[in-house]
DNA sequence: ATATTTTTTTAGACTAGTCTAAACTTTTAT
DNA sequence: ATAAAAGTTTAGACTAGTCTAAAAAAATAT
C-alpha cells in the first residue's frame, strides 16, 4: 500500500518520464513537486526499495513496470473523479483539479470500479485526457496542436494540453469545448496568432500559445 | 484547517460525549481510536490549543461549540458519502463504512454542497442516521429500541444503533431494512428474544441484542 | 586538462503522530 | 485514613516527510 505522498511522487515521475520512456532528473521532480532536491533524493530511495523506480545515484530515475502500473491507477482515479464532478455534480472544467487531487488517493477498488460503471466507462475526462482502463490500458488517438494544422482544414477539438483554470475559463468564454468543430481561417504571420471559426458560427482570434495548447484531430 | 487525524479525534470525542453533553476520559478516546492514552494526551493538548475542546488535566475533555461544529461537518460528509455510495453506486449498506471514513476527509465545501444537492438533500444515511445540514443542524426524531416496544404494536424500522457489517448483512438476510413495518408477535421470556413480523409477511426470531440495536418509531 | 559552475547527495535538524516506560494523580478498597 | 489499584501525564525515542547547509560528483568552460 502506497502513501499519499508516494503516489504523488510516482505520478510526477510518470508524467516527467513521458509514460515511462525517458529517465528523470532529481531536479525536475523537485520542481514539479514544489519541494527541494534533498527531499526528492530521500523519497527516490524509498520508491527504489519498493521496486517502483530504478535509481542510479547522480543519474536520475526510471520508472519500472510496477511503478508505471501504480501511476496509471492514480491517473485513472483522478480522471474518473474529474468526470464525475463535471458530469454528475455540475462542476465546471476549471474547478475540478484540486478536488480530484484529493479524491485520487482514496483506496478502494470496489469504489473505483463502481464509479467507472456509474459514469458509463468513459474513455476521456473533461479536459479530453484519456482514462486508463482497469488494466492500465490507455486508448491513444493521434492528436496534433491546433497551431500545426493547415488553414481551412476541418478539425475537432479533442483535449487541452495544459489546462490551468484561467486558460479553461478563457476557452469557455470564447466558445471552445471538447468536441467542438473548428477551422483555421487565417494564420497571422506577425505573432503566430490564428483567426478560427468555432462551431461554424463563431469567429475569434487566439494566440499562438493557446493554439499550441489545444489538441485536435482532423 | 484540521488534519485528517485531528478530525478523527474530534469525531470520536463528539460521539463519546454524546453530542457534546458529557465530558470524556482519555482512556475512552484511546479505546475508540485504537491508540494509547499517551498519544491521546498529546493530541488533546493540540485540540485544546485550537479551542476545539476544553481540557483539564486528569479530568478529561469537553468539546467546545467550535469543536462540535467541526465534528458535525465531518459527520455530515461521512453520511452524505454513505448515501451516495448506496443510492448511486449500488453499494450495500454493509460495504460503505470504510470508504466513507476516507471520503469524509476530502476538503471542499463546493463538493459537499453539490453532493448534497445531487442526492436531493437527504436527511438520513443508509443506516437511518440523521445527516446534519450545512449549518450543523440535526433533525431529531424520537426513536426507541425495538426491544422496548410492546407486543402487537405497529412500528417502522428507522435506524440501526451500531451497524457492524455482519449485523447489517444479517438484517438484509432476514428482510429487515430501514422503513420496514414491523410488529412484535411474541416476547420470549427465557432469553429476551422476539418473534417479529416484517412487512406483514415474514415471521422471524431475533435475539435480544439485535432488538436493542434496532431503533423504531411507533 | 583543469578550474568553475551546477546538480545531487549526505548530514543533521524539525514537525506530526505514534509508542514504551516511568512518574504522577485520582479512585477504590480496606 | 491510608495503601493498593487504576488511570493520566511526562520523558524520551521512533517513523515519515520535510528543510538547510555542507560535501561530493558531474557537467561545462576555458
From TrEMBL, chains A, B:
One Pfam family cited in the UniProt record for this chain: FeoA
Main location (coarse class): cytoplasm
Gene Ontology CC terms, in alphabetical order: cytoplasm
All residue ranges annotated as the HTH dtxR-type domain in the record: 1-64
Gene Ontology molecular-function annotations: DNA binding; DNA-binding transcription factor activity; protein dimerization activity; transition metal ion binding
Subcellular location: Cytoplasm
PROSITE patterns, A to Z: HTH_DTXR
Function: In the presence of manganese, represses expression of mntH and mntS. Up-regulates expression of mntP.
PANTHER family to which the protein is assigned, alphabetical: IRON (METAL) DEPENDENT REPRESSOR, DTXR FAMILY, TRANSCRIPTIONAL REGULATOR MNTR
Family, per entry: Belongs to the DtxR/MntR family.
Protein name in the entry: Transcriptional regulator MntR
UniProt source species: Chryseosolibacter histidini
Amino acid at each position: 500500500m502506497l502513501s499519499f505522498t508516494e503516489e504523488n511522487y510516482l505520478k510526477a515521475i510518470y508524467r516527467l518520464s513521458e509514460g515511462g520512456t525517458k529517465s528523470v532528473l532529481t531536479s525536475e521532480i523537485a520542481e514539479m513537486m514544489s519541494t527541494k532536491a534533498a527531499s526528492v533524493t530521500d523519497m527516490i530511495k524509498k520508491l527504489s526499495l519498493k521496486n517502483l523506480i530504478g535509481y542510479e545515484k547522480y543519474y536520475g530515475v526510471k520508472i519500472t513496470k510496477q511503478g508505471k502500473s501504480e501511476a496509471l491507477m492514480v491517473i485513472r482515479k483522478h480522471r474518473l473523479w474529474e468526470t464525475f464532478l463535471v458530469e454528475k455534480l455540475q462542476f465546471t472544467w476549471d474547478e475540478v483539479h484540486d478536488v480530484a487531487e484529493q479524491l485520487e488517493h482514496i483506496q478502494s477498488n470496489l469504489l473505483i470500479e463502481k464509479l467507472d460503471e456509474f459514469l458509463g466507462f468513459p474513455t476521456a475526462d473533461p479536459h479530453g485526457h484519456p482514462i486508463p482502463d482497469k488494466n492500465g490500458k490507455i486508448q491513444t488517438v493521434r492528436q496534433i496542436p491546433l497551431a500545426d494544422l493547415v488553414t481551412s482544414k476541418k478539425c475537432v477539438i479533442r483535449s487541452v494540453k495544459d489546462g490551468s483554470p484561467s486558460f479553461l475559463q478563457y476557452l469557455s468564454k470564447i466558445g471552445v469545448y471538447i468536441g467542438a468543430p473548428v477551422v483555421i481561417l487565417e494564420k497571422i504571420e506577425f505573432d503566430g496568432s490564428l483567426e478560427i471559426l468555432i462551431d461554424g458560427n463563431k469567429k475569434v482570434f487566439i494566440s499562438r500559445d493557446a493554439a499550441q495548447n489545444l489538441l485536435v484531430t482532423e
